[in-house]
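User: I'm writing a tutorial on reading structure tokens. Could you give me a worked example: one chain, its sequence, then its tokens, then a sentence or two explaining what the tokens reveal?
Assistant: Sure. Here is the example chain.
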Amino acid sequence: MSRKLFIIFSLFVSLYCVGCVPENNTERSNIQRGIDVFYDNLLEGGAFELPVVGASGYAPIEILVYGSARVSVNVLGMLQAGQGFTILAEDDEWWLIDSYGLQGWVRNSICFINLPDIIPSIVYNITNTYSSMFKSSFIEIPYITGRALYRGRDFNSRYGREEFIAPVIYGMAPKIFNAQQAALAEGNTLVLYEAFRPADAHNELHYHFSNLVDVNPTVLNGITSENFNIRWFLAESPYNHQRGTAVDLSLARIDDWEVRTSGNYVYLHILEYTEYPMQTPMHELSVAAAIMSSSIYSRSSTGWHGAEISPRASHGTLLLFRYCTEAGLTPLSSEWWHYNDIENTALAIDLDITGEFHIESTYSRAPLR
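And here are its predicted structure tokens:
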């Protein structure tokens, strides 16, 4: 049996029971615990499901492009905030990139990377790009609910299909990867509803939400009880979504899947899934969505330790919480879906990343050996 066929066979054997397990969550967890998904890139020592080389990256601020890695000399040019590029090579903390013919080296720690390019097993459903789900106390937000707030989908040459764009700061990507691998090991998958959100889209959302709070007592009460306030549900810019250090996630059981190829690599593609019942719908801005019983300082990576979990938290909420926190992500006490990377938030603040740009294109290529 060839190495490629062995990998595909291993995927088949390890995931065969995903769609035919008992409905009892405890039994399902026990049966599927220890599922191993084999990827060419991981077997070769890579950090993600598919190689970084060939993926799309983005400059969240003005970034200098250098003529060589490891030495900040010989400046070749500058990337503007929001400018995209193809990653051609990786050398420790440096990427060799190509952006419209400008080729050179950039520090990868200060760049965004497109998550679908390196973690394709995640289900991406960025509803704010086609029909926003934002409500408060289950009341629609005028001029927001049901609208596309920004563009964020493009043809992705890595997969030969239209795909959502989900940029995060590069240092956050390994934590999201680890959370997804933990979910896969139990027959589940993350469902990503949002990563980077442009500042102007966020500001419009904040404006109309604030107006609704001012005129609707039900909405006001829904965000101010249990020691919360409006900032816990929608703070003013700059916000972590603009900094590339926050993601909105749900969780689903894998019902059907297949092995696909990109270039010379295989990857797992989820065909069908069933989202776990969560305590509220996605993007319900009220205390009903709080995963903790009281507000916890959002800039602390440990403040949530030992905090009282809300009695509203569902089984799915708690599973997602475990996957994400064990991977190094920090929960937001007011929103069961929102997870921050506190370490990289501090970096983004130092860099003054404000997200005053749009990311609407991909620059990806199929990964080749």
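What the tokens reveal: The first strand starts at residue 56 and ends at 58. The first helix runs from residue 3 to 15.
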